[in-house]
């Protein structure tokens, strides 16, 4: 499947990703890590140092996942890391994970619109 990577600051605008068992497994493992991180951040009793270490592990896991799935060179990964914010990286990872799970670009855009509407009930 073709995934748009235009938001990453690279010269190429899309990447071909084959949803192999390995890619799906890596995506699932990343989602589990991200859910654990979210849970830990919501825990008011969590040790701040542990939260920060887990957060750093999550960033490393996200960038490693991107590099592996999109077949980025070290130079391309460095370009991405210098071009995007943490929120943009997180949003892009969510997009890639959704695509790997079978959503089309159109379905992803619809999901984003629905989420915006839920966050802003005035619309």
Quick summary:
The protein has 123 residues and is mainly alpha-helical. It is built from five helices and two strands.
Structure description:
The chain is mainly alpha-helical and 123 residues long. The chain is 69% helix and 5% strand. Strands 1-2 form a two-stranded antiparallel ribbon. Helix 1 runs antiparallel to helix 2. The radius of gyration is 15 Å and the shape is globular. The mean pLDDT is 89.
Give the arrangement of secondary structure elements.
Layout: E1 2-4, E2 14-16, H1 21-42, H2 48-70, H3 74-83, H4 86-100, H5 105-119
Antiparallel strand pairs: 1-2
Helix pairs in contact: 1-2
Search tags:
mainly alpha, 5 helices, 5% strand, globular
The first-to-last residue Cα distance is 33 Å
Radius of gyration: 15 Å
Supply the number of helical segments.
5
Sheet-strand content, in percent, reads under 5%
Shape: globular
Task: Report helical residue fraction.
Answer: 55-70%
H/E element string?
EEHHHHH
| Biggest beta-sheet profile | 2 strands, antiparallel
- By DSSP, the count of extended strands is 2
For the biggest β-sheet, the strand order reads: 1-2
User: Can you give the mean pLDDT?
Assistant: 89
The assigned structural class equals: mainly alpha
Extract low-pLDDT stretches.
Answer: none
């Amino acid at each position: 499947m073709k995934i748009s990577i235009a938001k990453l600051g690279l010269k190429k605008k899309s990447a071909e990703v084959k949803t192999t068992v390995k890619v799906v497994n890596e995506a699932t493992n990343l989602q589990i890590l991200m859910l654990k991180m979210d849970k830990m951040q919501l825990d008011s009793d969590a040790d701040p140092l542990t939260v920060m270490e887990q957060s750093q592990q999550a960033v490393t896991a996200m960038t490693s996942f991107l590099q592996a799935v999109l077949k980025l060179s070290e130079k391309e990964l460095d370009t991405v890391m210098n071009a995007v914010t943490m929120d943009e990286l997180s949003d892009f990872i969510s997009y890639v994970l959704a695509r790997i799970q079978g959503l089309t670009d159109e379905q992803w855009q619809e999901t984003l619109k629905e989420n915006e509407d839920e966050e802003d009930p005035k619309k």
